């Protein structure tokens, strides 16, 4: 059977859409250029650029983009660092213990791993 010819779509439907994420990028640029403007004002600016948007959408982008939360997050990190106890220099980390476990498994057990480490210590002296 012969193929049917493609039907042409109306011109309005075939109009090119802006690339995916262009509206969000326009909102981010407007937020960077005008950090003191309200979401309603930013929405009006972006609408003038040709993107249909609302103040709620601008608020969502602003929240994901960072907004004012970054300034508050820095002091919280400082208090968490002060709250953690100091770790002694001779403490063994979980990572080192996992490596030791793998070494013991490769050598056939803990007794064999100890013997290998003792022999290595004698070579290092």
The number of helical segments is 6
> What is the string of helix and strand elements?
HHHHHH
Helix residue percentage: 55-70%
- Residue stretches low in confidence (pLDDT < 50, at least 5 long) are none
Principal-axes shape call = elongated
β content, as a range? under 5%
> Rg, please?
31 Å
- Topology, number of strands: 0
What is the mean predicted local confidence, pLDDT?
Answer: 78
Largest sheet: none
- Gap between N and C termini: 87 Å
Question: What structural class results from the helix and strand content?
Answer: mainly alpha
Give structural attributes.
single chain; mainly alpha
Record the SSE blueprint:
Elements lengths: L21 H12 L5 H10 L6 H11 L3 H15 L10 H14 L2 H15 L1
Architecture overview:
This protein has helices spanning 22-33, 39-48, 55-65, 69-83, 94-107, 110-124. With 125 residues, it is mainly α. Among the domains are: 22-69; 94-124, no CATH class. The radius of gyration is 31 Å and the shape is elongated. The mean pLDDT is 78.
Short description:
With 125 residues, the chain is mostly helical. The protein has 6 helices and no strands.
